[in-house]
Design goal:
There is one protein chain. The strands form two sheets. Strands 1-2-5 form a three-stranded mixed β-sheet. It has a two-stranded antiparallel sheet with strand order 3-4. The protein starts with a helix and ends in an 11-residue tail after the last helix. The protein is elongated. The protein has a domain at 5-40 and 70-112 and 130-153. It contains five helices and five strands, in the order H-E-E-H-E-E-H-H-E-H. With 164 residues, it is mainly alpha-helical.
């Protein structure tokens, strides 16, 4: 086993894998098949004045940046998360140091974007996409996990067993 141990590795990978799955479902069904993803029917959400309506969210002017769907950007974000975790866990000391530091800042970048996306969905569109909400939750959990890891181990640099 690598630097993280089984539990930390599982935690750091699971939620990114769930987020990647959610974004992949949207990319495949909505952008490739041109159909609504499963469970995207319109119904009232627990928030007043907001409906669950993936069509409204995915077809809005806020659903892409320069023609690139946000779901594709989310998939890339989750893939980079996974690569950074694996690189930290199994990579050599210096590369692992860089991967861990990058992972923290990468996940911080994700957490910074989520409030804006929630604002767009709830206040501008008055609609939530179930898959987008899953991705938002996974980004929040990912950031929480990396923060707990840093807090618990109080380190940015990897301990180098060889002393180099």
């Amino acid at each position: 086993m690598g630097r993280l141990g089984k539990n930390w590795l599982t935690l750091m990978l699971t939620f990114s894998a769930i987020g990647l799955f959610a974004s992949s479902v949207v990319i495949y069904t909505y952008y490739y098949l041109h159909k609504l993803p499963p469970l995207c029917t319109q119904f009232k959400s627990p928030f007043p004045g907001v409906t669950i309506d993936c069509e409204r969210v995915l077809s809005s002017k806020y659903s892409d940046i320069g023609g690139v769907p946000l779901d594709l950007l989310a998939a890339v974000w989750f893939v980079i998360n996974i690569v950074l975790v694996i690189t930290y866990d199994f990579g050599p000391g210096r590369i692992a140091n860089v991967a861990l530091s990058t992972l923290f800042y990468w996940r911080f970048l994700g957490i910074v974007v989520v409030p804006y996306l929630i604002y767009v969905e709830t206040y501008l569109l008055h609609a939530l996409c179930i898959y987008c909400t899953v991705m938002h939750i996974m980004i929040i959990i990912d950031f929480t996990i990396i923060t707990l890891y840093f807090t618990k181990f109080k380190r940015i640099n990897v301990q180098n067993p060889g002393g180099n």
